[in-house]
Amino acid sequence: MTLQGKTALVTGGGRGIGKSIAHRLAEAGAHVVIASRKMENLEETAKEFSKLPGKTIPIACHVGRKEQLEYLIQQVEDTLGPVDILVNNSATNIGQGPALEVSDEALLKTAEVNVLAALRLIRLTVPKMIQRGGGSIINIASIAGLRPQPQGLVYSFTKAGLIMMTRVWAIEFGPHNVRVNAICPGLIETDFSEYFWKNPQHVERLQQTQPIPRVGKPDEIGGIALYLASDDSSFVTGQTFIIDGGATAR
Question: Is the whole model's pTM more than 0.90, yes or no?
Answer without folding.
Answer: yes
